Request: fold
Amino acid sequence: MKVVISVGGSVLVPTVGPERVRQYAAVIDDLRNDGHEIGIVVGGGPTAREYIDVGRKLGADEISLDQLGIAVTRLNARLLIAALNGPTPPTPLETHEAAYESFQRGEMPVMGGTTAGHTTDAVATALAEYIDADLLIYATSVSGVFDADPKQDDSATKYETLSPDSLLDVVSNIEMSAGSNAPVDLLATKLLQRSGLQAVVLDGNNPEQLRGAVAGNHDGTDIIPDHD
Ligand code: UTP
Reply:
């Protein structure tokens, strides 16, 4: 199965340390050893937010803040590359073309952010579209897509399945400034709408959920394309 994994920085590097990165690398290497072809996109997490907050206090413009975030995603991606056994390019790939070529060579391309104005969810969705992935996994800090923000509203209910159109309704009202916090970003959702990709949003704090998602058994939200 061709699988793209979007790993939020908040789940891969919740604090800067080796444990969680090691756990992710072990699960990803196992999936590869089971015969799956894998591409990975790593987010910036709390470290990116700290840099963005400080940059904002210093008066940086939004594009420069995005560039700070991108730099941190690539730092986190380097940690994952260090921990993986499977073949990866030595540094995070900065374009989808480079990641596509790496994937075609049989490697596991690892990317961080690319350009200002979106998040690594969008980078991962475009990569999944490019390599024609069978499954796109968003490993996030929430356990799926909810009808309200579960961190702020105790009565928020998780969807088991959603169409890309319904996902767009959920995320379209969330502010998209640098460092903002949607379960899946707006551009990623638009790309999902056009691509017909099969996707899962799940709790990335438990890397074992990745194995479950590949096997079709997880606790997250399935994003299932509309068929006409
Ligand atoms: P993330 O992709 O990590 O954002 O990018 P996120 O989804 O909010 O955080 P986690 O990792 O899932 O917890 C961090 C920031 O970097 C910039 C944006 O400002 C984003 O909010 N960024 C990232 C870009 O501008 N372009 C990219 O391609 C990626």
Observations:
- Residues 8-10, 43-45, 48, 65-66, 69-70, 73, 113-121, 123, 178-179, 181 surround uridine 5'-triphosphate (CB under 6 Å).
- DSSP finds nine helices and seven strands in the chain.
- The chain has one domain: 2-223.
- The mean pLDDT is 93.
